[in-house]
Amino acid sequence: MKEIGIVVSGATVGSIPVQIYRSAERHAVEEQLVGVVDRENPGEIVVGFLRRITKLEPVIRDRVRTPYVDKPEMVDYGILLPYTSAIVKPYVTIRDGKIGEVSNVVTPGSKVFLVDASMLESAFQGDYAYVGVHKYSGWALPLDVRYVTHHVGVFGATGMGKSRLVRALINELAARGFKVVVFDHTGVDYAPYYTAVIKSTEVKIPPNILASVIAKMAQLQWQTHGEYLEIATMTYEGKWAKETFVAHLKRTMKRLNARDSTIEKTELYLKQLVDSSFFEELNNRTKTPRDVLSAEATPIVVDLSYDTDLSVKQAIIATVIEAAWAEVKREKTPTRVVFVVDEAQNYAPQTWTISKDAIETTVREGRKWGLSMILASQRIVGDIDPSIRANLGTIFFSRLTAPTDIREISTYLDLADINESVLAQLQPREFFVAGLMNPLRRPVLIKTREVV
Ligand SMILES: Nc1ncnc2c1ncn2[C@@H]1O[C@H](COP(=O)(O)OP(=O)(O)OP(=O)(O)O)[C@@H](O)[C@H]1O
Ligand SMILES: [Mg+2]
User: Fold this and answer.
1) What is the pLDDT of residues 330-353, one digit of tens each?
2) Domain limits of the chain?
3) FRET label pair with 360: which of 113, 116, 160, 371, CA 20 to 30 Å apart?
4) Among 133, 164, 185, residue to substitute to test ligand 1 (most atoms within 8 Å of Cβ)
5) What pTM, to 2 d.p., does this model score?
């Protein structure tokens, strides 16, 4: 291990101030992986990350007026003593190759080293998944796949590599026997890369969800029209066509004593706002959501790009997730299904959408049944409903477009003082990983592996 600095006065269990040797300054970068060996506890290495790198100088001090400022020509560079200070955020200890908690405060004068990736690799052995390596040490961050049941969020500005990272996760989960169901919003991020692909237009939409879609398309208020639509979709028989459905709906509403004005409005809006092609295409929807779930293949991609209407795409997601719930409840045994929803702002935003209840129920209660959710989106606040985002146990985040997003993450995950300016400068493929799947729990900066 290369020695790079020394612990100075003021260490606590949560923060170790250090000074970096002149010769090692090039290693003093934010997020560098380091180890501290307490000179009074030499068998143990405290592993952590360098943060708050600061350049200091004792002669031309900050907030103290010196003559050099007015007469810079007087500066004799030979007498200046610039140095780099930093803090080490301790995460874990390693003793005899085993991981432990940080409980002792390191003694000033102890040495700081660069940690070798192999030391951490041998400390974390087991069936871990890998999607990338720590940016500086090259340590392949082990991910505990069991915690996928606490759900995962992937956030970052456009082009940072969220969809590629999600693909790396999908591959790792599928290889470990999880049934991964990917909802591909655009049809370009996932469908071209996997063999088992189902067109969304093949998937049957059950009556209750179909009623929501029709209400949404026809801009009919659910409170007034929902029940009629539900009953009409449930009792409709035969080939789907707009004319016959509207006639059936009118009869249903009459029978249920709906007011004439309500019936008239419903008919008018349906005729005006819903294309006949929507009804005709219902006839081609022959695959049941159970067909999607019982297919052998994993991952299985549902290509939503075949449906152009957002409420229909939402309906497909709701349909498949609800079918999975029905199955676990019927069988009364947990399963291992992971749903992937990229471009999640379309499916789980703060406003009501057809798919939101299914997603919300899954992140709230899916854990016990082995139903997991991976959500990816550019933003957190605004894109994802608060009760959904608060239930994401693991978060991958890259450069974020809104500064409020990082504060939002910090309300439910310990971010261990990562530097916001580091976050703002992240390059594509660089993500912090925080939360339950990361055995260190607190943020580790990784570069995702090549995903082609
Ligand atoms: N792990 C990776 N391996 C190889 N190339 C990558 C990787 N991650 C990102 N890239 C490159 O960056 C581009 C953008 O990646 P990706 O589509 O995953 O970003 P995104 O965050 O999902 O963006 P958007 O929000 O627009 O969907 C890719 O087309 C690819 O060229
Ligand atoms: Mg993407």
Assistant:
1) 999 999 999 999 999 999 999 999
2) 3-123, 145-204+288-448, 208-282
3) 160
4) 164
5) 0.94
